[in-house]
Amino acid sequence: MMGRAADGAIGRGQSLARTPRALLSLGVLAGLVLAAIGAPLLAPHDPFDPATLDLMNGFTAPMTHNPYTGDLFWLGADDQGRDVFSAILFGLRISLFVGMSAVALAAMLGVSLGLLAGYLGGWVDGLTMRAADVQLTFPAILVAMLIFGVAKGITPVAYRDEMAIWVLILAIGLSDWVPFARVVRGAAMVEASRDYVLAARLSGRSGPAIMLRHILPNVLSPVLVIATIGLAQAIVTEATLSFLGIGAPPTQPSLGTLIRTGQSYLFSGEWWILAFPAATLLALALAVNLLGDWLRDRLNPVLQ
Amino acid sequence: MLVSVPVFASADGPMTGLVRLTGVTRHFDPSPRGPGRILARPRPAPLTAVADVSLSIPEGTVYGLVGESGSGKSTLGRLVAGLLAPSSGRIEVAGRDPQGANAAAIGIQMIFQDPAASLNPRWRVGDIVTEPVAARGRVPRGLAERLLVQVGLDPADRGKFPRAFSGGQQQRIAIARALSANPRLVICDEPTSALDVSVQAQVLNLISDLRRDLGLTCLFISHDLAVIRHMADRVGVLYQGRLVEEAAAGTLFAAPRHPYTRMLLDAVPRLDGGGGRAGLRAGDIPDAVPAPTGCVFHPRCRVAVARCASERPALRAAACGRVACHLA
């Protein structure tokens, strides 16, 4: 590093060890993911077991002992006497799980459609890309709300809460495939015109084999970047849907659900119920985004 | 190098050979694709890349195809490989249409101009050279090593990626891949144009040795007359998609009959300072769209007469070959 002024320019396209910002993001992300995975071990309370909750603990401020029960809550307790720290750990689980699954679904869908459109061209290409254009004219959150509403409508009432997480993944995944499809289509068109694809055709490889074994490995690096940035988006979309009350149900609260619950107490002074889940969401989305930025620069041959 | 001089039953109807082309024409439509096509005004005329080409390549010989940029050489190569469909006419390789899965079944392989683009950058060399075998079934142990040795590379190179190799070595890898298919026909599309002169000779000698040892039939496409002279048994000269002359290599270089062939040979620079003067009539290659009336070459021809502008000369039998010129 040449000093602060040159930091941004020098840091571009550098290895992880030489970019403190990316290293810090990776550290934060790794910490949050580990915390989410280890939630049952780390959490001092089980926030979903009503038997362990004590209503007398309600609204305990952070780092203070409850005057009635004497219990200590690091990040305070909510209206039900639930430990906010434990709720965040479990909420992080839901948020990360929904975000990653939704991005995986979107990537799978987008990469497949993009490969088909780019390799086959013609009407397949036209149909896929017009569908992508149409979907892009609506904000992703509206599309997700629409899919969520329709999917919830056709789910039997008894299974609604159980299925809510899967419906959420489906809604976010289906609303987020367009960037993957566009990038992969463009890259696949370039690769498909290369001579090694002709050589593979002469070797007797079928269309699907050429797409999967030849073109796919050559179009994956931009997919990695979009998936990382898409993860941050999916987490925020999930939080938004949950905040609006149409995402993760209160029985399986995500960070968004926690923020929704917390915001009703903001003006009565119990700020911690909202602030800590919101700060966690912010840290998570920011870390993923910064890591995505670094990955984009790193994989950009122009900046190498 | 002269293996055989095939005898044609008639001037325009080749009868024998592993590869047979009859009246092959290929148009490309330059108008926009998709819905814009309806709105495009005026509709551009289709570009004719290959026009009415009939030829035959006997098994075990090398057919050299020569012509300048845009003459349709590569299109013709891709048509014979079955990678493009002809707009009209018939292509037969070993009695079958080479399109689709047939190319692999017949055993058609191609060596491309840019070796870097013809090798998948994400594949290891060992997987690249055995791909034609892998596409059919299991790859026998040691096959990749044998192929690499055959083209003069180190068998230990099989685990490396293509970018670790120089252009000449990459072309050797492409040749090894073509060989692994046990091909009957190898189409070499300018295989040395992207290489350094010092490496060109090595690659050419390798192709020529392997071809002789394995008895391969070869369609060798090049704009380089010296390369064609070195490699080919029989040479076809392509001008704006039309075959204007075809003869045994020795005959063509010793006694060119078509004015265009003469022009090409005159244009070759010589060390004694002679040559290099094509004796062109002013002007560059005329646009292929629309094609000139009469003889395609008449706008540039030194000896053209009135008839050349109005009447298209047929490809007719001449000594040791065929020529399409009213005056030859």
Describe the structure.
Chain A is mainly alpha-helical and 304 residues long. Chain A has a domain at 97-304: MetI-like (MetI-like fold). In chain A, 68% of the residues lie in helices and 1% in strands. Chain A is built from 12 helices and 2 strands, in the order αααββααααααααα. Chain A has a two-stranded antiparallel sheet with strand order 1-2. In chain A, strand 1 and strand 2 form a beta hairpin. In chain A, helix 2 crosses helix 4 (84-120) and helix 9 (195-202) packs across helix 10. Chain A is elongated. Chain A starts with 6 loop residues before the first helix and ends in a 5-residue tail after the last helix. Chain B has 328 residues and is of the alpha/beta class. Chain B is 28% helix and 20% strand. Chain B has 12 helices and 11 strands. In chain B, the strands form 2 sheets. Chain B has an 8-stranded mixed beta sheet with strand order 5-6-7-3-8-9-11-10, with helices on both faces. In chain B, helix 6 (143-150) packs across helix 7 and helix 7 runs parallel beside helix 8 (197-214). Residues 1-14 of chain B have low confidence and may be disordered. Classes of the chains: A mainly alpha (304), B alpha/beta (328).
Radius of gyration of chain B: 21 Å
Calculate the mean pLDDT score of chain B and round it.
85
Stretches of chain B where pLDDT falls below 50 for ≥5 residues?
1-14
What does the average pLDDT of chain A come to? 86
If strands are numbered along the chain, what order do they take across the biggest sheet of chain A?
Answer: 1-2
CATH architecture of one domain in chain A: Orthogonal Bundle
What is the number of E strands of chain B? Answer: 11
The 3D shape of chain B can be described as: globular
Task: Specify the oligomeric state.
Answer: heterodimer
Tell me the CATH topology of one domain in chain A.
MetI-like fold
Largest sheet entry of chain A: 2 strands, antiparallel
Low-confidence runs of at least 5 consecutive residues of chain A: 1-11
Shape of chain A: elongated
* SSE run of chain A: HHHEEHHHHHHHHH
Query: Which structural class best describes the helix and strand composition of chain B?
Result: alpha/beta
Helix count of chain A equals 12
The biggest sheet of chain B, with number of strands, parallel, antiparallel or mixed sense and barrel status, is: 8 strands, mixed
